[in-house]
Amino acid sequence: MIAARRKPSAELSREVILDAAAVRLAREGSCGMSMRDLAGTLGCALSSVYNHFPSKDVLLQELQERAFETLTASARRAMEGASGTSGRLYLFITNHVRYVVDHRDVMSVLVHEAGRLGPEGRARVRARKEAYFGIAHALVAELCSAGPDRASQVAVERLTYHLFGMLNWLWGWYVPDRHGEVALVAGDIYALLLARAGPLPPAHPTPEAP
Amino acid sequence: MIAARRKPSAELSREVILDAAAVRLAREGSCGMSMRDLAGTLGCALSSVYNHFPSKDVLLQELQERAFETLTASARRAMEGASGTSGRLYLFITNHVRYVVDHRDVMSVLVHEAGRLGPEGRARVRARKEAYFGIAHALVAELCSAGPDRASQVAVERLTYHLFGMLNWLWGWYVPDRHGEVALVAGDIYALLLARAGPLPPAHPTPEAP
DNA sequence: TCTTGTTGTACGAGCGTTCGTTCGGCCAAG
DNA sequence: CTTGGCCGAACGAACGCTCGTACAACAAGA
């Protein structure tokens, strides 16, 4: 009698919950977001969230897993557009930059809450992350035509980490309207990497003597 | 009679508390570290911590303020060793890399908990951060001999952000024993930047057509 | 030298609040 | 009538923080 308590339009689902969780997590951190706040954002009861996820940890873990899978899949799809190594790298970078712009909240969670999981969840997420990292690593290695010696291997690894440093830092500052469109930023990072990536490693550069 | 409850060797001070807090904060995040845990780590009572800091927020804020002041001061001191722009940039980078190695915990806090403050504390920390950012920004601008036009300005800003992306990402992966000593990594980043930084901006590089 | 008052730091106990999670019942769709 | 999704209510635990107190160190007056 007292009107319908059920909201027929709600359509509560795992996807909807994950999307809302990403927003709150990005804004307040994994420990700052309470399950009550999340339920409030969703306009449903606290226990309804627990009908779809058995715990907060699982929710956080699934969010990260999906993000890395989406990222990996979209990267592979994007790279089909080019055959050469440098072209594929450019498309990889562009895809990542676009992902940061389109899913800033998720990206923030990926950067901040990586280690806030149990050992089992962390392992699952890490596997996805390494798969994604591996794509870029292989491209950089090809681009540097790195030898099998340890020095070259480590140099390539460092270069790949630097690439991800630039890419992952974007969430903290990049605003397309202020800093230029996606293609511009992607071009920046691509150019930085390409200018450096020749036969590696050149002698360690010591600038003009102190 | 019941023996001395006071620990004469404890010497609880703000410095000691901040150091311990950095370790816990890096491991568990600002919301994961409880004041009780911190007191436990210090081997003192919870209320004793509150004798030195009025609140958790103030503690977190002071930790970040001190970190940026230390970072800025050590950068200025390090850069006195060179006169040219590129030499100063190299020393700036080296100083930052060394700081990450020596104060990994603090660095982790700086990256993760930047936005977890009240509006007033955030403003104070931001001011310090911008002072530090400004040093690198000026160096990059000089190095690029950037013109006053908006396109150049934005390009320099992007380049500076990319520099900090590489530098700040270090905390997550860099292990000197595995990836080479500080001078090697600093040389990497320096070379990446220098190879790119000429008269800016060169035409946007579109790699071989898709 | 002894006493006395003040100050700074440490302490245990406990305040009110919020956390993640659970549970039993209700209601509409099948 | 069954069932799956949703709800309000409540659990114990942990949270940030405060309170009144206790003890050492020091300075001044006697």
Unreliable spans of chain A are: 1-10, 199-210
CATH C-level class of the domain at 56-196 in chain A is Mainly Alpha
Shape of chain A: elongated
What is the helix tally of chain A? Answer: 10
* Average residue-wise pLDDT of chain A: 86
Assembly context of the chains: homodimer
CATH architecture of the domain at 56-196 in chain A: Orthogonal Bundle
Relative strand content of chain A:
under 5%
Q: Would you list the SSEs of chain A in sequence order as H and E?
A: HHHHHHHHHH
Q: CATH homologous superfamily of the domain at 56-196 in chain A - what is it?
A: Tetracycline Repressor, domain 2
* Structural class by sheet pairing and helices of chain A: mainly alpha
Our measurement of the CA-to-CA distance between the termini of chain A, rounded to an integer number of angstroms, reads 83 Å
The helicity of chain A comes to 55-70%
> What is the CA-atom radius of gyration of chain A, in angstroms?
21 Å
Largest interface: A-B, 52 and 53 residues
Number of strands of chain A: 0
- Can you summarize the main beta sheet of chain A? none
CATH topology term of the domain at 56-196 in chain A: Tetracycline Repressor, domain 2
